[in-house]
Amino acid sequence: MSDDLIRRAREALVSVTPGPWSYNSMGEFGPAYDDDYQAFGMICDPVGECDWPNAVDNARFIAAARDLVPALADRLEAQEALLREAMEVLGKLHHAVCGETGFAQCVRDHSKTIYPWPALDVADHAARATLAKLRAHLDGRADEGGVPNGI
User: Fold this and answer.
1) What is the pLDDT averaged over residues 26-38?
2) Torsions phi, psi of 84, nearest 5?
3) What is this structure's pTM?
4) 133: which DSSP letter?
5) What does residue 145 show for φ and ψ, rounded to 5 degrees?
6) N or C: which terminal CB in the chain sees fewer CB atoms within 10 Å?
7) Is there a contact between 33 and 75 (Cβ–Cβ < 8 Å)?
8) How far apart are CA 6 and CA 133, in angstroms?
9) What's the pLDDT tens digit per position in 90-119?
10) CA 113 to chain CA mean position, Å
11) Burial class (CB in 10 A: 0-12, 13-18, 19+), 78
12) Alpha carbon 89 to chain centroid, angstroms
């Protein structure tokens, strides 16, 4: 992500009421633990009575979110596509070096001594683990080392 986009997103969060937030039927925004009545802990009042702590910062954050959320979503989508491309290339490279017909296997098959490069085994293991984590990340499987899609 561009440094400017990250900076803008982080700046929008300064002095904002901690979340999660909710919106109730009376048109009030507030902490999610108080959905029905926001007499205490209101984050922003739509009629402009902003005398709650952090209310002005919260309103600025809500306004900034309109531009930041699409920009962050676009950037995340682009990075996910690049990550998929990098994963495909890494997979091909890994197969060429460590696959059943790859360079390392040829050395194993044609070497008259014990396989001479234990570092290649370490790299093979690391590549397999990284590819598995990338697949889990792109599929939203946090239990397998990825980041859940809901985050």
Assistant:
1) 61
2) -60, -40
3) 0.60
4) H
5) 100, 0
6) C
7) no
8) 24
9) 888 888 877 777 777 777 677 665 556 777
10) 46
11) exposed
12) 21
